[in-house]
Specification:
Layout lengths: L5 H8 L18 E4 L5 E6 L5 E8 L13 H8 L11 H8 L3 E6 L4 E8 L3 H13 L5 H20 L9 H7 L3 H4 L6 H6 L2 H11 L5 E7 L3 H12 L22 E7 L6 E7 L7 H13 L5 H9 L3 E8 L14 E8 L5 H18 L3 H18 L3 H15 L4 H10 L3 H10 L6 E8 L7
Parallel strand pairs: 2-6, 7-11
Antiparallel strand pairs: 1-2, 3-5, 3-6, 4-5, 8-10, 8-11, 9-10
Length: about 450
């Protein structure tokens, strides 16, 4: 039930499936889609590699749609979904899943909230019953709300306020780069907003967004689609549809002027920079090339910025980044996103020097493109990582469910490798020239606080 850390979830899920098997170069995931009368969309994919299954229930609500004045509300509510129902008190869900050898979790993102589990096939009926039960209603009590408000605030202490650099490379950069509240506010939330939430707010949120017609149920594993659809109809078919949840216009153009911010950090020992460029929409022809450019720049020790600024010029201590970073996949986003870089730099350098060096690397790509061997290396690695990430049933179900929710087409999962393969050096050059400009850039220079401020 963490806002970040999906990798850990998938790592836990992997032992429940069979050992990784060799996949054809153009592996395409089979799937079938059906919609129930109440609007719940079902996606099923059959795979008999092991007698297990992965399930993902994806709801069309995330940070962007949480109420104004309730920052962190979507994440808080995700926690409430694990507090039990009138029919299954807190702890029953975990005992049912984990007692049968399964795992479960949930996460909140900009455009969706998902609940995932993986278990032996024998547990399917029980898990479907419990997922349907919490779609019908939760235990909305003052005690549960207060408990989870404190849990979320403790997460903020651990991951933000009591941690060097916090999550400024996500929350602060987005808050500076985006103009619309939906895109720029802190999805983790403020203590004041979290404390202001009332039980009636949580219940209203549930009735608005946690309705079958705003959800996708995806199952992958040792089950025929017909069986999946029949069981889903049995457990979910009688849940009434809700009103169509309100949509928000979250579109934003590129920025026309550079945005900067200076910060101090009482816990940091070395200075850091975080950079974000607004990216084209996922439907843009430039999007796939942007994801490749993000990996070329900052994914691993072979990346341009690691080789040039960490090993080469020794300006940086480390560098991370990519499109939709620090979340798991650029393909799991519907609204605006950033290509983000986060680097720790040596105290003998300045933030301006680091930015000038990053600009030089980007300018070289914009001017000369990328050597074929480098481009192919990055695309091969991205394709390999993409397929490896889909190997566990749990993560495959999640990917199918998310794509169905965000694009209306679960099969989009199968098109992503081809979109990556089609990226050319000219595409990368165009994206670097068009999107990675100084005008479209937001960057934050975060320095250790003076010694007197640390006392």
């Amino acid at each position: 039930m963490r806002i970040l850390g999906a990798v850990a979830v998938l790592a836990l899920a992997a032992p429940l499936g069979a050992a990784p098997v060799a996949r054809p170069a153009s592996w395409r995931i089979p799937y079938e889609v059906k919609k129930l009368g109440n609007g719940l969309t079902l996606v099923a994919s059959e795979d008999h590699a092991s007698p297990t299954f992965g399930i993902s229930v994806v709801y069309g609500v995330g940070f962007r749609l949480e109420p104004r004045g309730r920052t962190g509300f979507a994440h808080l509510f995700e926690h409430m979904m694990f507090q039990g129902t009138p029919n299954a008190p807190k702890g029953i869900l975990e005992r049912v899943i984990e007692g049968g050898g399964g795992v479960n979790n949930g996460s909140t993102r900009y455009d969706y909230t998902n609940y995932v589990a993986s278990a032996p096939v024998s547990a399917l009926d029980a898990i479907l019953w419990m997922e349907a039960d919490r779609m019908k209603g939760l235990d909305f009590s003052e005690r549960n709300l207060k408990n989870q408000q404190e849990v979320v605030k403790e997460e903020i202490r651990v991951n933000v306020t009591n941690r060097p650099y916090g999550l400024f490379f996500w929350t602060d950069v987005a808050g500076r780069a985006f103009d619309k509240w939906e895109n720029g506010h802190d999805g983790y939330g403020s203590f004041a907003d979290l404390d202001a939430a009332k039980v009636e707010d949580v219940e209203s949120f549930f009735r608005t967004y946690y309705v079958p017609n705003n959800a996708v149920l995806a199952i992958v594993g040792d089950l025929a689609p017909a069986e999946v659809f029949a069981k889903a109809e049995k457990y979910f078919g009688a849940i009434p549809a809700g009103k169509t949840p309100p949509a928000a216009d979250v579109s934003e153009p590129p920025n026309a002027q550079e945005r900067t911010l200076d910060q101090t950090d009482t816990l940091a020992r070395v200075p850091a920079v975080a950079v974000g460029w607004k990216m084209p929409s996922r439907t843009s022809p430039d999007f796939a090339a942007a994801t490749v450019l993000g990996d070329l720049l900052a994914a691993g020790e072979a990346s341009r910025l690691y080789q040039g600024l960490v090993k080469g010029r020794s300006l940086l201590v480390q560098i991370n980044g990519g499109v939709y970073w620090p979340f798991e996949s650029p393909w799991f986003v519907k609204g605006p996103t950033l290509l983000t870089l986060f680097g720790l730099y040596k105290p003998t350098s300045t933030g301006q020097q680091v930015m000038a060096a990053i600009d030089a690397e980007v300018a070289q790509i914009a001017r000369e493109g990328v050597p074929p061997v480098d481009l192919q290396r990055v695309k091969t690695k991205m394709r390999s990582d993409f397929y490896a990430g889909l190997e566990p049933f749990l993560s495959r179900a999640d990917a199918l469910g998310i794509q169905q929710l965000l694009t209306g087409n679960a099969g989009e999962v199968n098109e992503i490798p081809a979109r990556l393969d089609a990226v050319t050096s000219g595409d990368v050059m165009r994206v670097a020239r068009t999107w990675l400009t100084a005008q479209n850039r937001t960057w934050i220079d975060r320095k250790p606080a003076p010694a007197a401020d640390k006392k």
